[in-house]
Amino acid sequence: MSFTKKEYFAPAPVTTRGQPVRLSADPKGEQFVYASGKTIVVRNLSNLEKAWEYTEHTSQTTVAKFSPSGYYIASGDVSGRVRIWDIVNDDHILKSEFQPISGRISDISWDPDSQRIVAVGDGKGSFGHFFTFDSGNTVGTITGHSKVINACSMRQRRPFRAVTCSDDGTSVFYHGAPYKFVSLLSDHSGFVQDAKYAPSDDYFVTVGADKKIFLYDGKTGELVRQVAAGSPEEAHTGSISAVAWSPDSKYILTSSGDRTCKFWDIESDRLIGTVKIGGTSSSPDHQQVGNLWAGEHIISLSLSGDINVLKMDAAEPVKVVYGHQKSITAASLTQSKLLYTGSYDGRLCVWDFSARPSSAPLGVAALVQGSTGDTRPEDAAAAGDLVAFGFLDDTLRFVENSAIVAGGSVSLSAAPRSVAIDSTGTVTIAVLANDDLVVISKGKATHVPVKETSAAARAVAIDHGSSLVAVGFQDNSVHLYKLQDAQLAPAGAKVTAHQREITSLAFSPTGDLLASGDSAGKIIVSKAQSGELVTSRWGSHTARIYGISWSPDGAHAASASLDGHVIVWSVEQPARKIFIRNAHMGGAAAVSFIDNETVVSAGADGGVKVWGITYA
């Protein structure tokens, strides 16, 4: 028994309002890299569906940059640690690790020899450091700034030069190597958000919160001019967070909090195009916080994490790539093989697996229409093509055909922590955060009195074939009920083999078996009608079970756990299992079988992964 990772659908870049995000492309312009939680994501520029991840950071990552040689990536995190690792081999061997500052790394830049690095950010005693990539030896000193440094850029040919920019409203120009302070550039009147050398190295440009763009001589650091100073009506109306140069060094792209991206001709000093992001929406989600120009690929990043693909002659993005920035907290697969996922920030996405595994991967999520995205989903359950989501704002909402069902929201007395929906899609059972068990039908929630135990309910599941209902309780027991006319009647059977509270339940496709998971990571399989034990040997998880899914043929089940692992189990041979270790950093939140040999999982890393399963 074995597995292969067939597909990886990456999370979106993590953003913070008012904080620029750095994107970096490899020297060939084929891939770009960004930070997302504790994960560094490398994505294909020509085919944005293709991506891979690096997960060796133990703190939240903030920035990653390709070396000019294309052999390494240097990535930084909130602790001030910088890791330099190999990207040629699949095991991504760590070359070196340093802590240049004692706080968040904001930006990293390499010299043209791929030997020296400058890392800047929000340190306690220093805001940045110049050092060699292999030994960490000091090759310069950061001076001249009194506040956090937002960006840095190193000249890619001799004589070596570097520039840094800061919240103190200044930029500092350095000669190297070793790099030393030469001049303080005080042309901006607010935070300086980004600084970039042109590919030709003849100029560098800075942008800031004052909505201004300044062009400097790349060799001397002298001011050349303010870009388009004579056309204030064409300027951004919000803070400029990022700037990128065209490969021929003739144009620059600026991205702003005014929800626009602008293309500027440096030679003629004029605006040549504006791209409006988000249409007529005034939502701050469409504020632009980062950008990239690599070959023919032009990208700007929204505060929401959306990746906007731009063209110079287009007034709006030609493509938008969606994903999750935060942990996925709920997911469910429909009969039509649409996977609906919801994340901690309330975003709902849908992924189409209907054509798998024969056709090419889609890999890019669509947003669920009508979703407000203001509160996180606690659980999700599907019946046919209808999905019920329980939200933290004490509501139950239904999704169908990639959209919120109009008028389908049901207000409850507390947040639904576990939900199940019957085969007709008309009756939903929910376990609420106030320990109440309710049946929802025709928009009305009815309390279900439980006489079999005084313990609080924790999890619920419905068998779509027989309408048998399983409810897991805090006293480690599972009781079976019959759903009749939107009421629950005791079925007499119960499961008592657990030693911890029940956290997840799932009936097999035929309804004859019930898998129950608990807070200690133990899974028990019982006969659904009688509660008789089938196996108690599914016990390899070390933390809470978040989800259980059965294969269509009922021969196997998959589990997702807080320990980050996904395990595929065999009913006939309980000791045999397929152990997918560290499937999701921070915890695996949900798992489903697409078919008997394909499993999809989602988790705290915000990613969705497809696993090919071989049972032989």
UniProtKB/TrEMBL annotation:
Cite a single Pfam family from the UniProt record: ANAPC4_WD40
- Keywords assigned: Repeat, WD repeat
The keyword Nuclease is annotated on this UniProt entry: no
GO BP of this protein: actin filament depolymerization
Please list the GO terms describing molecular function.
actin filament binding
Write down the InterPro entries for this protein, in alphabetical order. Apc4-like_WD40_dom, Quinoprotein_ADH-like_sf, WD40/YVTN_repeat-like_dom_sf, WD40_PAC1, WD40_repeat_CS, WD40_repeat_dom_sf, WD40_rpt
WD repeat coordinates: 54-95, 185-226, 233-274, 321-354, 495-536, 538-572, 581-616
Q: Does the keyword Membrane apply?
A: no
Give a Gene Ontology cellular component term annotated to this protein.
cortical actin cytoskeleton
Per the database record, which ranges form the Anaphase-promoting complex subunit 4-like WD40 domain?
468-536
PANTHER family this protein is in?
Answer: WD REPEAT-CONTAINING PROTEIN 1, WD-REPEATCONTAINING PROTEIN WDR1
What is the protein's given name?
Answer: WD40 repeat-like protein
Q: Which source organism?
A: Coemansia spiralis
This protein's gene is called: AIP1
